[in-house]
Amino acid sequence: MTQKINVDEKIPFREYSYSLKMKVVHEIQNGLISRNFASKKYLATRSTIDYWCKKLGTNMSEQNNHSTQKEIKKLKSQIEDLELISDLRMEIIDELMKLVGDEAAKKLYPKQLIEDVRRMKK
Questions:
Q1: Which residues neighbour 21 within 8 Å (Cβ) at sequence distance 6 or greater?
Q2: In b/e form, how buried is each residue of 54-66, taking b as 16+ CB within 10 angstroms?
């Protein structure tokens, strides 16, 4: 059987301190607990927890969090690509030094480096 609530009965209102609200929002934003678990742990409704996160927290919605994670993965892959290119360039410079000789390569390399820097600035 389900218990019926009379219209005359008031739903008890529980007041939470600001520090508790901030603690809950901080835990949710750091990924320590979910919003659903927070509502059970602190005996607050899910909508109340959502409201606290909206008003007190930074804008870290799940959609925003997923896009941030995608951006991090993209940047990590770009870093790996750039490291590979850098290693390849160093190998080419080493081979050039072996073919041309150390003295000739030392004379040529700074000029090429200056030209590359100028091209990059453009």
A1: 52, 56
A2: eeebeeeeeeeee
* Beta-carbon contacts of residue 100 (< 8 Å; ≥ 6 apart): 108
User: What does the pLDDT look like over 24-70, one tens digit per residue?
Assistant: 998 998 889 999 999 999 988 899 999 998 888 876 555 556 677 78
Note if the pTM is more than 0.90: no
In angstroms, the first-to-last Cα distance of the chain is 77
Cα gap 105→82, rounded to integer Å: 24
Domain boundaries, the chain: 18-56, 62-121
Phi and psi at residue 44, in whole multiples of 5°?
Answer: -125, 155
**The two structure tokens encoding residue 10:** 């008031």
Answer yes or no: are the C-beta atoms of 16 and 9 closer than 8 Å.
Answer: no
Tokens of 63: 């959609």
